[in-house]
């Protein structure tokens, strides 16, 4: 028979459920905070902040005086993946708006943060950084002196045996040295009781686990965790619907803009067609004018040709008359000169040009 008391803290409704492999452990985290009532909670490896924000919410709702610290470089690693500044900025903004008075985010390496915590000051330590055997062992051993006499350590991903994960291997070793129990759902969460002043509820679970009777407790927190994961999935669906609605609105607006543009183009086409018609009419008028001008030019050319022909005839006629008069004169002279020999005065009168000759020859 398991002596385990149910608590409303297990029914926590997360205010923020960022996508994470840790979501299924949020009900247990809330119950753990209630049972341990820690003065100091330190998380090594935070990423999007699912566990960090769950601890903060539990402390706030239970009106505890706890302080919650998140230590991370927010650069990622080979197991969590590498990511940009947006992950840190989003979490930082949410933390400042909701939990600034009870929590702090330390952006640094795990070993760099050691100097900011005194020995024996941490009641709850959550190790969720790089998941290799060597990294997990180093994190535990370097932070062990910082744990208080009530100290509890959480190890995430104790059930993952792929991609170089070594948490399961280290958990198998360290859980033999301290009282411990393991929740096997949601990739596994190991709970190690390193302090000598142990919570009665946690000690009871460790004893039950040692006797092999933790299956029912595992099932309980698994079911509660599934509700949280379902909530996250619903929020993702709603977010997807909101994005889809936004896309519909955007496409609708784009379609309206395209229709307006099409109407404007159609109006421009109509205006251009009207301009083309006007230009065609102007071209026809100009063609008529050109035809009229061309007819006038042809008429002028004919007149010029006639005048030119007339000028040629006049010149030929003058030459013919001159030649004919010269021939006639020559014949007259041949007949008359012998008769006028000795009569110079008459000859001079005869040879003097007549008025009609001067008019004809210009002499």
Features:
alpha/beta, Rossmann fold, seven-stranded mixed β-sheet, two-stranded antiparallel ribbon, coiled coil, methyltransferase, transferase, methyltransferase activity, LPS O-antigen biosynthesis protein
Describe the structure.
The protein is α/β, with parallel strands linked by helices and 363 residues long. It has two domains: 236 residues, Vaccinia Virus protein VP39 (Rossmann fold, 3-Layer(aba) Sandwich), CATH 3.40.50; 33 residues, no CATH class. The chain has ten helices and nine strands. The strands form two sheets. The protein has a seven-stranded mixed beta sheet, with helices on both faces. The model has no long low-confidence stretch (mean pLDDT 85). Pfam families: Methyltransf_24. This is LPS O-antigen biosynthesis protein. Keywords: Coiled coil, Methyltransferase, Transferase. InterPro entries: SAM-dependent_MTases_sf (IPR029063). One of its GO terms (molecular function) is methyltransferase activity.
How is the topology of this model organized?
Blueprint: H1 26-36, E1 40-44, H2 50-61, E2 67-72, E3 76-77, E4 81-82, H3 85-98, E5 103-107, H4 110-113, E6 122-127, H5 133-143, E7 147-156, H6 167-174, E8 180-183, E9 189-193, H7 200-210, H8 215-336, H9 344-351, H10 355-361
Parallel strand pairs: 1-2, 1-6, 2-5, 6-7
Antiparallel strand pairs: 3-4, 7-9, 8-9
Helix pairs in contact: 1-2
């Amino acid at each position: 028979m398991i002596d385990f008391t149910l608590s409303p803290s297990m029914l926590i409704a997360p205010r923020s459920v960022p996508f994470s492999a840790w979501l299924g452990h949020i009900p247990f985290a809330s119950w753990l905070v209630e049972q341990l009532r820690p003065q100091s909670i330190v998380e090594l490896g935070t990423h999007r902040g699912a566990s960090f924000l769950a601890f903060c919410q539990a402390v706030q709702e239970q009106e505890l005086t706890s302080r919650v610290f998140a230590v991370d470089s927010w650069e990622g690693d080979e197991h969590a993946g590498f990511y940009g500044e947006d992950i840190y900025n989003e979490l930082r903004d949410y933390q400042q708006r909701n939990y600034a008075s009870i929590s702090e985010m330390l952006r640094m390496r795990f070993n760099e943060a050691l100097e900011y915590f005194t020995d024996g000051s941490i009641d709850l330590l959550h190790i969720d950084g790089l998941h290799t055997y060597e990294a997990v062992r180093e994190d535990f051993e370097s932070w062990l002196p910082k744990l208080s006499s009530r100290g509890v350590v959480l190890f995430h991903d104790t059930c993952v045996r792929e991609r170089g994960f070594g948490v399961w291997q280290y958990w198998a070793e360290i859980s033999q040295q301290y009282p411990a129990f393991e929740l096997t759902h949601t990739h596994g969460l190991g709970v190690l009781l390193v302090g000598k002043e142990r919570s009665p509820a946690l000690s009871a679970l460790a004893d039950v686990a040692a006797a092999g009777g933790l299956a029912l407790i595992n099932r309980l927190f698994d079911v509660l965790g599934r509700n949280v994961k379902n909530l996250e999935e619903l929020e993702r669906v709603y977010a997807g619907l909101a994005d889809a609605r936004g896309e519909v609105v955007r496409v609708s607006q784009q379609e309206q803009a395209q229709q307006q543009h099409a109407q404007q183009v159609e109006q421009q086409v109509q205006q251009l067609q009207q301009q083309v018609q006007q230009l065609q009419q102007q071209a026809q008028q100009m063609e008529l004018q050109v035809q009229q001008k061309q007819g006038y030019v042809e008429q002028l050319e004919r007149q010029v040709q006639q005048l030119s022909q007339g000028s040629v005839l006049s010149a030929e006629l003058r030459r013919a008359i001159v030649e004919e008069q010269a021939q006639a004169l020559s014949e007259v002279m041949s007949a008359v000169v012998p008769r006028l020999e000795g009569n110079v005065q008459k000859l001079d009168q005869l040879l003097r040009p007549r008025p009609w000759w001067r008019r004809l020859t210009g002499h």
